[in-house]
Design a protein that fits this description.
The radius of gyration is 17 Å and the shape is globular. It is built from 4 helices and 20 strands. The longest helix is centred in the last third of the chain and has 9 residues, at 204-212. With 271 residues, the protein is mainly β. The strands form 3 sheets. Strands 1, 2, 3, 4, 5, 6, 7, 8, 11, 12, 14 and 17 form a 12-stranded mixed beta sheet that branches. The protein has helices at 68-73, 146-152, 156-159, 204-212; strands at residues 6-12, 15-22, 25-29, 44-45, 50-52, 60-64, 83-87, 92-93, 99-101, 108-110, 112-118, 134-141, 144-145, 165-172, 182-187, 190-196, 222-224, 232-233, 239-244, 248-256. The protein has one domain: Fumarylacetoacetase-like, C-terminal domain (Fumarylacetoacetate hydrolase, domain 2).
Length: 271
């Protein structure tokens, strides 16, 4: 994808829609842009819509220890090949939706990440061709129940709770040079993580190729590229913000699960 666009999903008049952000206006689309969705209807003010997760992935494939500084922070050796795990589609929420702290865990951490959104079916993709299969990029918070991750010795439970994959605010189809793409986390306005994707152990083309040789990637699927050092705990009442240079900011409040109430449009990226 080479055309610069900001693609999003939003909730308006009791329905979810895809759209393209043009200034402070949202142009509705008849279908997801990566499947050829065309403009339909009149533009809407951005302030009049509620942003959702910008895509509906069938799966999220995430990376462990893919920043050199984070591997050192966790006192673990760098992997010899990408260390992948998965988060379910039911963990997805959008901007502003609350992250629910489950009663099972006593420590839930934020993890700021650059996410890659797949634009076409990808299977056994060569590294040199990987860019042809990428629709764009967005922010992702790989929320993790750290105590359960250590207890279980693997990642599934700790990464899979509902609301543990905030994504947004939109998909940026073109990014600047890697050294300019910073990845940051802020908690209540205080910066906790800061790095750039030049510090990735395995870059985006390698990840797309490696994963596509294991499983078929579908349009809208997401690859979370890993987090830098500085991961830390979240507490009820916190507001966590993920910023990725060239994309924007993804903010979510943090609440206890029992205080969250029933899920509504703002709490589910799947509506």
């Amino acid at each position: 994808m080479t055309t610069t666009m900001r693609c999003l999903r939003y909730f308006y008049q009791d329905q979810s829609h895809y759209g393209v952000l043009e200034g402070d206006q949202v142009q509705p689309l008849a279908a997801p842009p990566f499947t050829g969705g065309r403009p339909v209807g009149k533009p809407l003010p951005l302030a009049a819509v509620q942003l959702l997760a910008p895509c509906e992935p069938s799966k999220i494939i995430a990376l462990g220890l893919n920043y050199r500084d984070h591997a050192a922070e966790m006192r673990m050796a760098l992997p010899e090949e990408p260390l992948i795990f998965m988060k379910p589609s039911t963990s997805v929420i959008g901007p502003g939706a609350p992250i629910l702290l489950p009663a099972q865990s006593r420590r839930v951490d934020y993890e700021a990440e650059l996410a890659v959104v797949i634009g076409r079916l990808a299977r056994k993709v060569p590294v040199a061709d990987a860019h042809h299969y990428i629709w764009g990029y967005t922010c992702l918070n790989d929320v993790t129940a750290r105590d359960l991750q250590k207890k279980d010795g693997q990642f599934t439970r700790s990464k899979s709770f509902d609301t543990f994959a905030p994504i947004g605010p939109w998909i940026e189809t073109v990014l600047p040079a890697p050294d300019l793409v910073t990845v940051e986390a802020y908690v209540n306005g205080d910066r906790r993580q800061h790095s750039h994707i030049g510090n990735l152990v395995f870059g985006v083309p390698v990840l797309v190729s490696f994963i596509s040789h294991i499983m078929t990637l579908l349009p809208g699927d997401v690859i979370a590229t890993g987090t830098p050092s500085g991961v830390g705990p979240l507490h009820p009442g916190d507001v966590v913000e993920i910023r990725v240079g060239g994309i924007g900011s993804l903010g979510n409040p943090v609440v206890k699960d029992e205080d969250s109430g029933s899920p509504g449009p703002s709490q589910s990226g799947q509506l």
